């Protein structure tokens, strides 16, 4: 990964070592107090890693700029849920995925997942490993009233639930790389987060994470040089609390820990 046992490859202008992740990320809907309990080393990227991912799309395909140019439509990969061996059904925007697999009140459940034919399917079954799926206690959709749900614009209700990937890139001395989102972004502005973004058509989870890592930081890792491990899934809504407004975006974020088998990481 990074050379030796320190962050020497990252000790350049704009790099910052963070001692208390809970303080820095407390505004990001309680997420990292559960998953991250180590010291952190992060890029402070004034641009927040590049472009904003959502340009107010109304359907499963978005226009988005990449590297300063407009590319063809990018198909968003959505969450599907499967219960009691029934056929997978596309998750609804106002549906809490966590509640789907619990009695409705629990904020954590273990599920299995698969990515097949551009569908990210969550299910509970006897086959395959299970991973934790969590949400915060104040998760907006959990507390959404019928009146509030009806007030959400129809184009947002039709969005479904997007899939995100976040990479926890760990150095040999157990530090993790963080990036800071630009203050101009509409979704979680000015917040410290791991590199990551949306899963795109025909990508694996690892491919999506490594692509986002390169786009946001310039660091390039090859799939054969890393040992990925899925730590868990986080159900996230923006705004993160109902007191800040009705839900506009709904994601299930896959948190993936990466250890590198190499001693170097190219920077481009």
TrEMBL record:
Gene Ontology molecular-function annotations: 5'-(N(7)-methylguanosine 5'-triphospho)-[mRNA] hydrolase activity; metal ion binding; NADH pyrophosphatase activity
Record key words, sorted: Hydrolase, Magnesium, Manganese, Metal-binding
Any one GO CC term of the record: peroxisome
The keyword Manganese is annotated on this UniProt entry: yes
Cofactor(s) listed in the protein's UniProt record: Mn(2+); Mg(2+)
Enzyme Commission number(s): 3.6.1.62
Domain Nudix hydrolase: 158-268
Stored PROSITE patterns: NUDIX (PS51462)
InterPro entries: NAD-cap_RNA_hydrolase_NudC, NUDIX_hydrolase-like_dom_sf, NUDIX_hydrolase_dom, Nudt17_dom
SUPFAM superfamilies per the UniProt record, alphabetical: Nudix (SSF55811)
Pfam families per UniProt: NUDIX
Catalytic function, reaction form: a 5'-end (N(7)-methyl 5'-triphosphoguanosine)-ribonucleoside in mRNA + H2O = N(7)-methyl-GDP + a 5'-end phospho-ribonucleoside in mRNA + 2 H(+)
A single GO BP: NADP+ catabolic process
Enzyme class: hydrolase
Keyword Magnesium listed: yes
UniProt-listed PANTHER family: NUCLEOSIDE DIPHOSPHATE-LINKED MOIETY X MOTIF 17, NUDIX HYDROLASE, NUDC SUBFAMILY
Function: Acts as a decapping enzyme capable of hydrolyzing monomethylated capped RNAs (in vitro). Hydrolyzes monomethylated capped RNA after alpha and beta phosphates to form N(7)-methyl-GDP. Shows low activity towards unmethylated capped RNA.
Family in the record: Belongs to the Nudix hydrolase family.
Name of protein: m7GpppN-mRNA hydrolase NUDT17
